[in-house]
Amino acid sequence: MQGSLRENDSRSPCNQSFNIPSPDIIARGQFSEIKKTDYARQVLFKGDEVGQMMKVVGEEGTSLEDYIDYLKSEFFDSVFLQQNAFDAVDASTPAERQKYVFDRLLLMLTAGYDLADKETARSFFNQMRQIFLDWNGTAMDSDEFKKSEEELMGMLKGKRKESDEEARAQFDRLFGN
């Protein structure tokens, strides 16, 4: 593929066949960030695979677990990868805010969800998406930002299978924080 980083490519920060970071990445303390990015990329790939499968077998032929993976991928794409160019806050997001929001988003992507069926899952992720998109348009140091974050984290906690401690341990295990 043109423009992609292959495992033998000298521009690649990781030897992807073994997931070993280069010494300069370790020295700069960026290994955790690479693991987070790789995890998010895996969520997107899994969601795309499920989306392709649903084109063949339909939504009803997809397991709830796969459907939730698909919804996570769509959620990530719509709330983080796409920006609202017509919103002054979302159109130009500082790196500090991107990292902060990305870490909160990873809590949502790594969670296991207790959702009864596909309709419940779709409704839950649509509600989360709308709150997150509104959150993207608020100034980071505002009360509205904090309120939206609390609402998102409350929704997550209400539907997450894991306890707070289990979720934090899983996050630390995945990303080494």
Q: Which strand-content bin applies to the residues? A: under 5%
CATH architectural arrangement: Orthogonal Bundle
Give the number of DSSP strands. Answer: 2
Instruction: Output mean pLDDT.
Output: 80
CA-based shape: globular
Provide the structure class.
mainly alpha
CATH class: Mainly Alpha
The CATH topology annotation reads as Bovine Mitochondrial F1-ATPase, ATP Synthase Beta Chain, Chain D, domain3
Q: Nearest-angstrom radius of gyration?
A: 17 Å
Summed up, the domain count is: 1
Biggest sheet, spatial arrangement of strands: 1-2
N/C terminus separation: 33 Å
Give, in order, the helices and strands.
EEHHHHHHHH
Sequence stretches where pLDDT stays below 50 over 5 or more residues: 1-23
Q: What is the number of helical segments per DSSP (H or I, 4+ residues)?
A: 8
Question: Would you write up a description of this structure?
Answer:
With 177 residues, the protein is mainly α. It has one domain: Bovine Mitochondrial F1-ATPase, ATP Synthase Beta Chain, Chain D, domain3 (Orthogonal Bundle). Helices cover 67% and strands 2% of the residues. It has a two-stranded antiparallel sheet with strand order 1-2. The longest helix has 27 residues. The two termini are 33 Å apart.
